[in-house]
């Protein structure tokens, strides 16, 4: 049977050219799904529904749907916080490219997002200002990104056996032309006294990407909800649902096998716990229901990130075909991600007791994409990104006596603000373990099953 597959693959590649292979040229993996014209009809319906969407205006009016997390920076003993950051202009998102493949319930997509404008407040050491050389009449900050565009893949799922819904996103955004300004009355200035360190800038960009994807998803899902499976597939709908379920099972099994091997390797290589950066930063804490402000410093050394062998798949994965490669993309998460620092000090007035700190990071997600080259019969990791590392909670501090309660509240805040640095340490280690686990995949069998069936 493999000889038959090799012969057919050779004929296809010779006929259409290796650089122009389209997945529809292969023997159909889902025989009941019409191809070609159905993809076109679906694409046109999606474009029209997207362009004519009206419910997004109501969604955008809610500040919570366009807000960024606060951005913190510590530099030159100054604690700078960019807070209440929110998108103030409704982006005019246009789809510039769409190539749907309903056989695998995914599409290539290009979007023009245009300009994104964020405004917010800036606080240094708890005071609303930007530095001694800036007038105290400063009103806030403005962060503008122009010519923002995105291109990548979107996977679909089925909602209530009737309509489509987006599930996975492998979309890369250009950063656009960025400008950071302070607002003083009716004037603006780019001469900003406090420059954000690298980890804070990366945190800002990460927050913008997450918000941009959530807006794009909202727009796409509103459009997809207007397209019924019956009008796209007609009498083939029932068969499509069955075959879609089979495809989900197969794609999920491929990634589950990689995850299982990766978790074993993390344990075997003694990487279930890795060292993370120390914390050394000032804090300002206002007692709830009172006007008492406590200022001090939290120092945490000998930190570690634990339970890295508990990766699981988050939802179904998606499949696409692009430039001669099968692309499998989806999300992973850790069931129990913990952070610990063995030596913690809470200093008030330069002195304070020492103890230990432990906590749990409840929100964590990794987006990744794997490419299977059908000619070389090889698998590579083309994208790996920790997209969420937030929601520190259950922080427990021991050894600080009467300061334990205060340290626990400050520790949650400090962990959340240091996640970008933790990501920078954790990403290369986890990525390497994924690559090693991928080396154990029987790629030839994966290609064969995808093309000829998944019995």
Question: How would you describe what is shown here?
Answer:
The protein is of the alpha+beta class and 455 residues long. It folds into two domains: 22-227, Bactericidal permeability-increasing protein, domain 1 (Super Roll); 250-455, Bactericidal permeability-increasing protein, domain 1, CATH 3.15.10. It is built from nine helices and 17 strands. It has helices at 2-16, 37-51, 56-61, 198-224, 229-233, 237-268, 404-417, 419-438, 443-452, and strands at 71-75, 78-87, 94-101, 106-124, 138-159, 163-173, 177-184, 187-189, 273-276, 279-286, 293-306, 311-313, 318-322, 325-334, 337-347, 354-373, 378-398. The strands form two sheets. Strands 9, 10, 11, 12, 13, 14, 15, 16 and 17 form a nine-stranded antiparallel β-sheet that branches. Strands 1, 2, 3, 4, 5, 6, 7 and 8 form an eight-stranded antiparallel β-sheet that branches. Helix 2 (37-51) packs across helix 4. It starts with a helix and ends with a helix.
Note the topology:
Blueprint: H1 2-16, H2 37-51, H3 56-61, E1 71-75, E2 78-87, E3 94-101, E4 106-124, E5 138-159, E6 163-173, E7 177-184, E8 187-189, H4 198-224, H5 229-233, H6 237-268, E9 273-276, E10 279-286, E11 293-306, E12 311-313, E13 318-322, E14 325-334, E15 337-347, E16 354-373, E17 378-398, H7 404-417, H8 419-438, H9 443-452
Antiparallel strand pairs: 1-2, 2-4, 3-4, 4-5, 5-6, 5-7, 7-8, 9-11, 10-11, 11-15, 12-14, 13-14, 14-16, 15-16, 16-17
Helix pairs in contact: 2-4, 6-8
């Amino acid at each position: 049977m493999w000889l038959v597959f090799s012969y057919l693959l050779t004929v296809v590649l010779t006929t259409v050219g290796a650089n122009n292979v389209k997945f529809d040229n292969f023997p159909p993996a889902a025989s009941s799904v019409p191809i070609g014209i159905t993809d076109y009809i679906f694409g046109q319906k999606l474009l029209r529904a997207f362009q004519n969407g009206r419910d997004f205006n109501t969604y955008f009016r809610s500040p919570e749907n366009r807000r960024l997390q606060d951005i913190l920076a510590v530099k030159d003993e100054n604690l700078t916080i960019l807070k209440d950051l929110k998108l103030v202009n409704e982006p005019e998102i246009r789809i510039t490219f769409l190539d749907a493949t309903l056989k695998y319930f995914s599409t290539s997509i290009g979007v023009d997002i245009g300009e994104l404008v964020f405004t917010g407040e800036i606080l240094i050491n708890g005071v609303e200002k930007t530095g001694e050389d800036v007038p105290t009449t400063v009103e806030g900050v403005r962060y503008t990104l122009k010519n923002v565009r995105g291109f990548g893949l979107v996977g679909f799922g089925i909602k209530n056996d009737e309509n489509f819904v987006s599930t996975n996103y492998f979309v890369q955004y250009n950063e656009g032309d960025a400008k950071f300004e302070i607002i003083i009355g009716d004037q603006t200035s780019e001469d900003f006294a406090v420059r954000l360190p690298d980890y804070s800038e990366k945190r800002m960009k990460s927050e913008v990407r997450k918000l941009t994807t959530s807006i794009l998803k909202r727009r796409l899902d509103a459009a997809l909800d207007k397209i019924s499976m019956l009008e796209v597939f007609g009498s083939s709908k029932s068969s499509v649902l069955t075959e879609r379920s089979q495809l989900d099972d197969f794609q999920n099994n491929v990634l589950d096998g990689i995850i299982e091997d990766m978790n074993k390797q993390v344990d075997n290589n003694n990487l279930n716990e890795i060292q993370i950066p120390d914390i050394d930063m000032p804090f300002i804490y206002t007692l709830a229901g009172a006007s008492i402000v406590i200022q001090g410093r939290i120092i945490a050394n000998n930190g570690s990130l634990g339970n890295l062998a508990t990766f699981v798949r988050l939802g179904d994965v998606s499949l696409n075909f692009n430039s001669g490669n099968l692309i499998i993309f989806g999300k992973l998460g850790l069931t129990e991600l913990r952070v610990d620092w063995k030596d913690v000090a809470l200093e008030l007035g330069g002195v304070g007791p020492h103890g230990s700190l432990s906590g749990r990071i409840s929100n964590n997600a990794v987006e990744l994409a794997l490419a299977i080259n059908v000619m070389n019969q090889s698998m590579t990791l083309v994208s790996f990104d920790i997209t969420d590392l937030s929601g520190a909670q259950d922080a427990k501090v021991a050894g600080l006596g009467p300061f334990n309660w205060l340290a626990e509240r400050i520790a949650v805040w400090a962990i959340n603000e240091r996640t970008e640095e933790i990501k920078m340490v954790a990403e290369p280690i986890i990525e390497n373990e994924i690559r090693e686990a991928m080396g154990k995949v029987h790629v030839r069998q994966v290609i064969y099953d995808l093309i000829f069936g998944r019995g």
